[in-house]
Amino acid sequence: MKTSLPYLALLAFCGFIACMKMPSSNADILTELISSIESVAFVPDSEGRDVEIVGETELKFKISPSDAGEKLMDLNIGYMTVKAEYCETKSAARLKYIPIVSRSFSDGVLSLVIDGDVLPDDFYEGELSVNLTLIVSDGIVEVSSNPVPVTYRPGGNTISSFSVSNGEIMENGIFFGKNIVVILPSGCSLKDLVASYTTDARDVFVNGVPQSSGLSVNDFTKTVTYEVSSKNAKARQYYVRVYSFDLPAVLVGTPENKAISSKDIWLEGAEVMIRNTDRTMDELGTAGIKGRGNTTWALYDKKPYTISLDKKSKVLGMPKDKKWNLLANYIDRTNIRNDVTLELARRTKSLEWTPRGEFVELILNGTHQGLYYLCEKIKVSKNRLNISELTPDIVSGDALTGGYLLEFDQNYDEIYKFHSSRKYFPINLKVPDEDVPDEQLKYISEYIDEIEWQLYHYNPANSSYKDMVDIDTFIDFWFVQEISGNYECNGPKSVYMYKDVNEKLKAGPCWDFDWGTYMPEKVTEWRAKTVGLWYPRLFLDPVFVARVKEKWAESKPDFLDIKNYVDSLSAVIRTSAEIDNAMWPLSKIKINGDENISYEEAIERMKYYIDERIEWLDASIAAL
């Protein structure tokens, strides 16, 4: 082991010292006894490890022959000490006598318990050569063991490992600096748990009560503060939080627990792991993390995040990728508006890819943030929106015709963007997004302009827009908007479209359904048909309307069954949703109309809306 100071040399002698003057005959007896000792050997611990001198520490020596050790213990020597010689520099040395608290002899082994806390502050950590020295009043008679390494620590204030147990299950803690998180299986009580820990401290307290590792019982329903200290180390606090979750937990630790303060700048070097419900842990490695969203990031206390893993990983059964979203769903009393609507999109016949997601508990730097929706980020890749990827060198030919990922959004905030010529829709070019040549931006902007020209300059029934637009995807996309009652396509906001090589423009992927959706008071209102995107013109085309009726008949049974999905999903997250609502109350939010009712009432309200909405749409579509 390397020492704390250059050339630090340490030499410890364990010794018996007679503190009262012994009669000459006794000294002679002791001297004769010592001369009969053939060997002294240091005894390491049961696992063969070096000894660490921390507070009261036991040192053991094997005495041979054994009867010499027994006679040694029978002698009435006043008290025992350890004499330690150590060097602060190469040339300076001092002696320190360390009291022996107790001594014993059994099976040929001499045991000395010493008080290491009396060592001076500058007795730094290092290697000591341990020898046994016996001292009598009229001289020193030394019998030495083989030198063995002994690590001295002056006593610290750190906890290096931590776990809790309820007598049946033991779980290890996860450290975020001085925050320690322990996650127990669902349903476990957090009361009367026993903590076990490894520490270099002499004193450990909880609320002023001394603690013993593996013995002390505490109530962990709230944060428990452990205060650890030693004579030469000031007190340090560790904050232990124990949770019992029904759902997987995503644990994110940023460097030095730094706060995530920007949605534009990545905070790199975060550690990400997932604690599964089967108690296994998935280490996802390091990642960048930043905030996400516009209104949700700027206005609400419960923040959403985007994670970019340094290495592609499967996450909770979802295909490998680097980019993942953590949606807060703060304004949604049910917490499931986004997931349920994305499930509707998956039940359509033509929408090629819809983001997948799982509900999780988020632990950020050791603090529980509540219920989140961990889902795939919309992007072009093999495992997500699988279309061709444009490179900056593509400026002509068929390759120039795809793939493009567009976002129609009033938050006109990407580097590459344009407005459509007729409707002046704000359109962000999401992919490609780096070093985009003028030819690519020109191609896709003119393609959108030509669609609008065909729809608005001519009667749609007689125009060639169908040669440019995949009407099946636009119809299925419209079903999702109308069933959920989403009006953001009217903005437009969060509306995605894409175009692959030599293919038509397609609607999707679907995204963002937590604002103003599933509202019973809006059951009998069109949401996208009359004002959303190009739909007012599309519905002027009898061919488009006829196809709407055909596809509605095909998909209606799958849409009606979504209520069963709502029941099963809400049952899984109910406990977490109630805890989340207590953490992030909606008392000041008036958006979806269910903010001040119970969770069960919010779910029943959502199901009532689905029934009524599909019935109304069924009749209204038939009447088109």
Number of strands: 32
**Average of pLDDT:** 86
Give me the number of helical elements: 10
* Helix share bin: 10-25%
Shape descriptor reads: elongated
Question: How is the biggest beta sheet arranged?
Answer: 10 strands, mixed
Question: Could you tell me the radius of gyration in angstroms?
Answer: 37 Å
Poorly predicted residue ranges: 1-24, 76-95, 124-131, 135-149
The secondary-structure class comes to: alpha+beta
Q: How far apart lie the N and C ends?
A: 84 Å
Proportion in β-strands: 25-35%
Can you describe what's shown?
The protein is of the alpha+beta class. The protein has ten helices and 32 strands. The strands form five sheets. Strands 1, 2, 3, 4, 5, 6, 7, 8, 9 and 10 form a ten-stranded mixed sheet that branches. The radius of gyration is 37 Å and the shape is elongated. It starts with 8 loop residues before the first strand and ends with a helix.
Key words describing this protein structure:
about 35% strand, alpha+beta, disordered N terminus, elongated
Short description:
The chain has 624 residues and is an alpha+beta fold. It has 10 helices and 32 strands. The strands form 5 sheets. Strands 1, 2, 3, 4, 5, 6, 7, 8, 9 and 10 form a 10-stranded mixed sheet that branches. Strands 21-22-23-24-25-27-26 form a 7-stranded mixed β-barrel.
